[in-house]
Amino acid sequence: MRRPFNFAWPAACLLLVALTLYVRREQLSQLPRPASSFLHPPGEVKAEPSAPTAEVVPTTTASVPSPTHHAVLPQETRTAYVNAIMNPDAADLPRLQCPKLDASRYQQLQATSKDVPDSTIQYFFALDLRQCVALLPRLIGSVVETIRFLGPKACALSVIEGNSDDGTGEVLAALQPELEALGVTFYFSTTAINPKKGDRIAALAELRNLAIQPILDNNNELKYTANDTTIIFLNDVAICPEDILELVHQRVHLGADLVCGMDWTYVGNDPTFYDVWIARALNGDSFFEIPADGNWNSAWNLFWNSADTQARFAAHQPFQVFSCWNGGAVFTAAPLLEGEGEEQVRFRTVREGECAQGEPELFCKDLWFRGHGKIAVVPTVNLEYSDEAGAKIKEAKGYTSRWVGGSEWKDEKIEWQAEPPEKVKCMAVYSNQFFEPWNQSLVPGT
Ligand SMILES: *[C@@H]1O[C@H](CO)[C@@H](O)[C@H](O)[C@H]1NC(C)=O
Ligand SMILES: *[C@@H]1O[C@H](CO)[C@@H](O)[C@H](O)[C@H]1NC(C)=O
């Protein structure tokens, strides 16, 4: 049996870089820092490697012991947040501007237009949030607006908050009466689970499982069903209602098991695809090539070795991948609820002999294993992790409606490939990348 970490000590530092890149996303605060990166678009020559200029906000690991049990926000500030979240037109707190919803494109998604029992929760929104109060008017505001559009009684919102000292938990807790009045089922809890301590991936997987727990509770089996419940699992992204609805729409239209958008980061002046540690194309390779020294110089050259995928991406049409998360995913509840015990897919950490990777990649891997490999990227949806950078990325890549609202636009289908790639790139550390069988360690004894 192969050992997962059979590399020397220096490589362990790079592992930290890779993990930090990944974990940062959960922390919202900073841009990732690819090792010795200097990014430039094709053709543009830069004399010097320009170090990323973004401020790195120091992260305090051991902050407030009891994160949310005493109020940190003045009452009126908390009220302003709640008001902004519940009222899309409220303008007293800054947020990414979003286009008005094109109701006609998405009306078939509305709960009332479906032949599903009233007791069923058709849309389950799940979020794990930490220290992101400034983003809540946009992020949760978009979720609430989407819920209003889809039909609140057929929706649930589940939020797990932890280790924030900026008032994130307080604002979320204060939403309870408002959301109840709206008629949406709201699950909210605060946890001390901290991915910065101990096994990060295990902690992140545990947090994700906590967010979807209501679906798995036996007494909820009438509410949540394999084929009628869709899960919308969002990271701390600046997302518009139309982004969420486009993902939900494409999942239905494509007949996909899971779809996600594209997420980006500004390491330099030009945006770079972010979730490169998790995402794998249908050929098993990363979305762009990262050489052993960890530089992101080829970040502009997405899908460099897959002409079909590259063409679909250029045309803004969805394409199948082995794995993606990219700031959020929309997926069927079926793999969580079908079968018994081990057959039911959950978020998890790596097993013995398995390449070190993030829980979203493992989730996709397990989906393939359970016959749910219709996984696609919807490249009209482009996300960043703050309101400011979100505005920049919408400017650079276009709002979703810029593409799908055009008179020329046609929703294409995907010709699904039934088989996963034989091998998938393991990138536990940049310095030691290799391909391993897509189903490594899935079957006991292998
Ligand atoms: C869900 O849909 C699949 C595919 O259409 C079908 O095979 C399965 O029986 C359905 N499951 C339930 C519980 O209705
Ligand atoms: C892994 O997948 C390959 C190709 O899909 C298959 O041939 C092989 O039998 C699988 N290995 C195990 C141990 O199931």
Automatic annotation (TrEMBL):
The keyword Signal applies. Residues 1-25 form the signal peptide. InterPro entries: Mannosyltransferase_CMT1. The keyword Signal applies. Pfam families: CAP59_mtransfer. Residues 49-68 have a biased composition (Low complexity). Residues 33-69 are annotated as: Disordered. Keywords: Signal. It comes from the Eukaryota. PANTHER family: ALPHA-1,3-MANNOSYLTRANSFERASE CMT1 (PTHR34144:SF5), CHROMOSOME 8, WHOLE GENOME SHOTGUN SEQUENCE (PTHR34144). This is Glycosyltransferase. It comes from Chaetomidium leptoderma.
